[in-house]
Amino acid sequence: MKINATAFLLVFSFLLFASCEEARQTRVLKLAHGLDVTHPVHKGMVYMKQQLEQVSGGKMTLEIYPSQQLGSEREALELLQIGSLDMTKVSAGVMESFSPKFRVLGLPYLFRDRAHQFAVQDGPIGEEILRDGENYWLRGLCFYDAGSRSFYMKDRPINTPADLQGLKIRVMESPTAQAMVSIMGGSPTPMSYGELYTSLQQGVVDGAENNPPSFYSSRHYEVCKYYSLDEHTALPDVLLIGTKVWNKLSPEEQEWLQAAVDASVPEERRLWAESEEESLREVQKAGVEIIYPDKKPFEEKVQPLYDALKNDPTLYDLVQRIRAVETDNPGSPQL
């Protein structure tokens, strides 16, 4: 019996050692974001995790923390900068405070249509913007489709910019978004996404602006019954990794991660398109009035934002290069 017990202990110790060895050989990256698990962008990142495990043969994986479990978007970016968090997904608008070139992505009515938007983000200009964050210890890996942002209100529809006069509109911590709402006559009110539902209920703000899947998954439609699809900005989400973490990865690990990221982009766009249709359908069932205002007055109202860029040669040049990008699909859906 003593021999059997000894043999058992040896086998158990060996298996425990092997398990620890295997754990040490699997690199785990922690990814935090603020979206609900039903959101198409979250699902796109789950797909990325599956692709990473596959392409690396199980040597790399992700632990995903949704719903602001590890803090707001800004807090997640700060954790990346100091190396306390590996990866995050934020709206490109939040990146304005960390990386100047991201400002152009928040400009209203920048893209002609979806084909133009994707051609810019998937091409050299998109790569240039993603890399601009490296000066601030933030390396962009890809852009995820986040549709177009539109106004939703508690008590009245928005048919023209004049309808925003004096209303408190929740915006992201984005100087461009704040300037846009101000120019249209509203009162921009920056706040965390997680605080918005209660703020709408309590009347702290009169409305907000976001894309259909976020409007639906956040359940803001329970409070706001008017959704005006002016589609003022086609602001993407951006997936980031801290440069301190990226530089610790081997060249092979960097290649695995980027391959998984690249594979997730078309899948996320597919999920997004499905979710956008479903979201508009469901909020209408819940009693939300969908308004399709004439976009021309909104475009004309925000022209001063573009005029002001002439004082910033770098960003002005970037806008001109974006507008010059041609696409092979001029019949793509309008934004």
Automatic annotation (TrEMBL):
Stretches that traverse the bilayer: none
Signal peptide: 1-18
Domain of life from the UniProt record: Bacteria
GO BP annotations, alphabetical order: transmembrane transport
Keyword set, alphabetical order: Receptor, Signal
UniProt-listed CDD domains: PBP2_TRAP_SBP_like_3 (cd13671)
InterPro entries: DctP_fam, TRAP_DctP, TRAP_DctP_sf
GO cellular component: outer membrane-bounded periplasmic space
An example Gene Ontology molecular-function term: carbohydrate binding
NCBIfam families reported for this sequence: dctP (TIGR00787), TRAP_S1 (NF037995)
Name recorded for this polypeptide: Tripartite ATP-independent transporter solute receptor, DctP family
